Structure formats: C-alpha cells, structure tokens
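thought: user wants a sequence for this fold. calling inverse folding tool.
action: design(structure=
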C-alpha cells in the first residue's frame, strides 16, 4: 500500500497561491470575498498554524472544474462559513 502522507509545506503553498488568486479574482466583483482571502493570505504568512481545515475547504470550494465560481456564489460560501464559525457578517461588509 502506498504511503499517503500529507506534507504541510505542499498545503501551505497551495493555500497561499489559491488565497492570492481568489483575492485578485474577486477584487471588484465581490470585495467581501477578496478581503476574506486577503486576510487568510496574511494569516498564512504570519500564523500558519492558526489556519483551519474549514478555511482550506472554503478556498477549495471557490473553484469548480478549474473555474472560479460566480461572485454571488463565492460570497455566499464565505458568509456561510463565517456564520458557522459565529463570526459577524458585518465585519466584511462595507
């Protein structure tokens, strides 16, 4: 049986790249998602041990079949995640 060890460095590289891409993709179409991704990118740099599996899952959900999801769908996914964590949505609102 092949060893399926997960390398934290590989996950960090993926998450950092995905957070950056999400931040850029939604900068004008969904600033809420862009700011969330930017905050996650900063956290990956400063406190990578504080990133949760849920946050990584949200990053993964924002791309389907190699394409970014529609801005309204992306914002909904981020809001639902934040709501599930007890974070006030108003933090990201204008």
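)
observation: tool returned 94 residues.
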């Amino acid at each position: 049986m092949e060893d399926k060890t997960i390398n934290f460095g590989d996950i960090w590289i993926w998450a950092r790249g995905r957070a950056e891409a999400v931040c850029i993709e939604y900068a004008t179409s969904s600033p809420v998602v862009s700011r969330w991704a930017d905050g996650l990118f900063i956290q990956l740099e400063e406190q990578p041990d504080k990133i949760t599996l849920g946050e990584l899952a949200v990053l993964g959900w924002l791309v389907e079949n190699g394409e970014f999801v529609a801005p309204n769908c992306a914002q909904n996914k981020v809001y639902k995640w934040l709501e599930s964590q007890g974070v006030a949505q108003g933090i990201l609102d204008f």
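thought: summarizing for user.
answer: Here is the designed sequence. Helices lie at 8-25, 31-46, 53-61, 71-84.
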